[in-house]
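Hey,
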Amino acid sequence: MIVVKNRIAGRGVLSFLSVAALLGAGAFFSTLVQENRAMAAESEKQLAHIVFFTLKDSTPENRQKCVESCKKYLTKHPGEVYFAVGTLNPDLKREVNDQDYDVALHVVFKDKAAHDAYQTAERHLKFIAEGKETWKKVRVFDSDLSE
């Protein structure tokens, strides 16, 4: 600990307490900064948006139409860092493989804010309006991604 000596009696103790208070405040503010950084990092996590479409009429042509519609309306949105779409691989039939879908959409956004903006984007809403009559079931899986 630092003790500051002064000519006036008793000032050394006051100076000691002042330094101690400053050190305590520094530790407090350091903790606040660390907590704010952690909260900022949490809000900046990438978000994976995975959607599985089961079609009412599951033909190769209809699966391809759904894939093309995804490519037309769901690519190149602001904050989109990864896009992929494809059909079920019928050769993978392990017990753990879910076979209850036709088309899988995979989109990764830079953060939750980009995902939220995508949800109300005109092209996304048009995709839903044009495709919803062809879908038997839609399952959406959104998850935060860690480094």
